[in-house]
Amino acid sequence: MRSVLSLAASALALTLVAAPALAQDAATIERAETVRDAAMERNIALDYVTQLTTRFGPRPAGSKSEQNAAAWAADYMRAQGFRNVRIEEFPLVGWERGEESASIVGARPQRLVVAALGHSPGTNGVIEAPVARFDSLEDLNAAPAGSLAGKIAYIDAGQMVRMQNGSGYGPLSRIRAAGPAAAAAKGAVAFIMRSAGSDEHRMPHTGTTRYVEGRVPVPAFALSAPDADQVSRLIGMDETVTLRLSSTAHTYETVSQNVIGEIVGRSRPEEVIVLGSHMDSWDLGTGAIDDGAGGAITLAAAKAIAESGRRPARTIRVVLYGSEEVAQPTDTGNGGGAYLRGVGAALEKHVIAGESDFGADRVYALGLPPGAQTSDFARAAAQVLYPIGVLPSPDPELHGGVDIGPLAGAGVPVFGLNQDGSRYFDLHHTADDTLDKIDPAQLNQNVAAWAGLVWLIADSDVDFRAMRPAEAAAH
């Protein structure tokens, strides 16, 4: 009876509040809490990510698997009641791994476990050369010109530091991106690195390299952590280590695509909230945490809001971006750039954007755009999210993520629902990125956090652009 009376009171309050309702209205907060609780108990997230990873497996950018998954996801959206579902294509240089191998040859022969780095060229046969080891990218850059002629450059910067916010990844991903060009500049015939991960498993982490003047200069590989240790120990024993490397990796012309669907706003449908994730994955696993889970979370949150019995005032647009994982000869922003170019003048009506691309473990903090940290909206969001373990972050969210980065760069405010990344880089870009690594309870908590927060924004007139401090607005 108490719940019935509560619902009746909520309905009465909603009729008395002039539209659009302010985010801090008691009725709006109460409905957000109701949406949150319903999403925690029942949502489509696990169904979506299960079907995606099982039906299509890995979804490399531009591959037939990514294209087929996109077509399926569009149909899935339509079946769940999303409107204006469409696929937005754009050209892409794709990459196939082919076959790869590595071994130590000579007096201490042994096989190594490696993964070619994304978009690096093949070896055109076999490369056999001595290894020159460096502790950092800076050390490699400081090597004399031509000093690595006929050698393989190897950077072992040590194990990634495990951090809840994933900040240990940046120093190693920087090596992966810039290392091949640095090696080539010193005359090296190939590049290898300790893979960018926080685990000690014999599963190397792949990831994209960087194009320089339209190409990746030399074949590049990631060594699994135990194999990196092995090579470094041998070199530390004053052994000359010679490696034999082989890769048939190659690029090809193709297309990728964004999949877009909407919960159309009730009274101000032209005002848009973007919920982003990416469809593509690396080829070693099935892309469950990176980033099938993100698509599952954002789709399920929007669906939970649609099922609440009242459409919000603003439109919620879910975008499953294509080709987030890979660099390109010309940086056009991949899926995020294609979306921005397609929006045109409607960009000014984009209220805010958020991205889910850090696995499926629990959300622990909310980052809001500059100026919103002490607002009435922030207090309302804290009230809705605190009961499920999400605390406000004092730091403003500025960038969002790779996919919504182009929107942020064009002036659209962004938010972040920050996930616990303590184990994310054990699995990231490896063969271990599979469905069984998703904890359904933590996945549901993500959906609940997204649904509650997005409802507050979507059924309000909160204006994050107007909250910006002058210096942030000028930036």
TrEMBL record:
GO terms for biological process: proteolysis. It is found in: Endoplasmic reticulum; Golgi apparatus; Lysosome; Secreted. It holds the Pfam family Peptidase_M28. One of its GO terms (molecular function) is metal ion binding. Residues 1-23 form the signal peptide. InterPro entries: CPQ, Peptidase_M28. Residues 258-451 form the Peptidase M28 domain. Homodimer. The monomeric form is inactive while the homodimer is active. PANTHER family: CARBOXYPEPTIDASE Q, PROTEASE FAMILY M28 PLASMA GLUTAMATE CARBOXYPEPTIDASE-RELATED. This is Carboxypeptidase Q. It comes from Brevundimonas alba.
